[in-house]
């Protein structure tokens, strides 16, 4: 899926647009009504407004608007089925896990759209979350659970929590299919088989490799250096 059809924006502002300018609004109308300067944000409001206008017929009051939108979300996205699946598998609710559960139900949504659905459900007080106890005996358990709880983190965040040794743990979880680490994918074949991430073949090119020389043997190697801003996401097998 390329561009999202709707975005996690405040319902009261979307309602304001629906009442004051309607679905035929132009970009300038959105910017003027909401007093925003960002054309990108205004475009997101415009796309979201048009998506809702095709489904919510009765604008009425904000409460009426919200109730009708709730009915649309429940029916169009089979939310009860998706959420029941997450509860059954004891999977934390994140945009990533929601998107995976909806895909299992035959519905494709982007993570941005999944975030919007969660946000709106919570705003309408139609969604509550329960914490599920999880044993995290090993470092691998702890790292995996943190990423699952957050849905998505940067590598730098994990390093701050667990130290530089977290690199090998992240790679192991990626190899097992528990994590998505896009920055590693270009070199998947090499990294899936490598026994020592500090002694990879010399001369490797790319922003995730650094070259160093063993002072004793004189041998030159490449080592895996995951960028601090590299995005790490949980993967779910439902």
Explain the layout of strands and helices.
Blueprint: H1 11-20, H2 27-34, H3 39-53, H4 62-76, H5 79-88, H6 95-104, H7 111-123, H8 139-150, E1 152-154, H9 155-162, H10 166-175, E2 179-180, H11 188-193, E3 209-213, E4 220-224, E5 231-234
Describe what this molecule looks like in 3D.
It is a single chain. By secondary structure, the protein is mainly alpha-helical. It folds into two domains: 11-124, no CATH class; 139-234, no CATH class. 49% of the residues lie in helices and 8% in strands. It is built from eleven helices and five strands. Strands 1-5-2 form a three-stranded antiparallel sheet. A hairpin with a 6-residue loop joins strand 3 and strand 4. Helix 1 packs across helix 3 (39-53) and helix 2 packs across helix 3. The longest helix is centred in the first third of the chain and has 15 residues, at 39-53. The model has no long low-confidence stretch (mean pLDDT 94).
């Amino acid at each position: 899926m390329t561009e999202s059809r709707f975005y996690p924006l405040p319902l009261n502002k979307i309602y304001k647009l629906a009442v004051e300018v309607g679905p035929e609004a132009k970009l300038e109308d959105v910017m003027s009504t909401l007093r925003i300067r960002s054309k990108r944000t205004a475009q997101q409001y415009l796309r979201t407004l048009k998506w809702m206008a095709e489904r919510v017929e009765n604008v009425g009051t904000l409460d009426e608007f919200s109730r009708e939108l709730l009915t649309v979300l429940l029916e169009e996205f089979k939310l009860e089925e998706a959420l029941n699946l997450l509860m059954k598998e004891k999977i934390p609710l994140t945009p990533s896990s929601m998107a995976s559960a909806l895909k299992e139900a035959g519905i494709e949504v982007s993570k941005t759209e999944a975030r919007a659905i969660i946000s709106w459900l919570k705003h309408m007080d139609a969604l509550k979350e329960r914490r599920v106890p999880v044993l995290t005996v090993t470092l691998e358990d702890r790292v995996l659970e943190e990423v699952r709880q957050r849905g998505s983190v940067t590598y730098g965040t994990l390093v701050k929590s667990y130290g530089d040794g977290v690199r090998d743990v992240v790679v192991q979880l990626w190899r097992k299919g528990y994590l998505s680490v896009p920055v590693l994918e270009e070199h998947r074949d090499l990294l899936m088989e490598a026994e020592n991430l500090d002694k990879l073949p010399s001369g490797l090119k790319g922003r995730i490799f650094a070259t160093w020389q063993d002072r004793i043997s004189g041998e030159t190697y490449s080592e895996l250096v995951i960028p601090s801003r590299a995005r790490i996401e949980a993967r779910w097998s439902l």
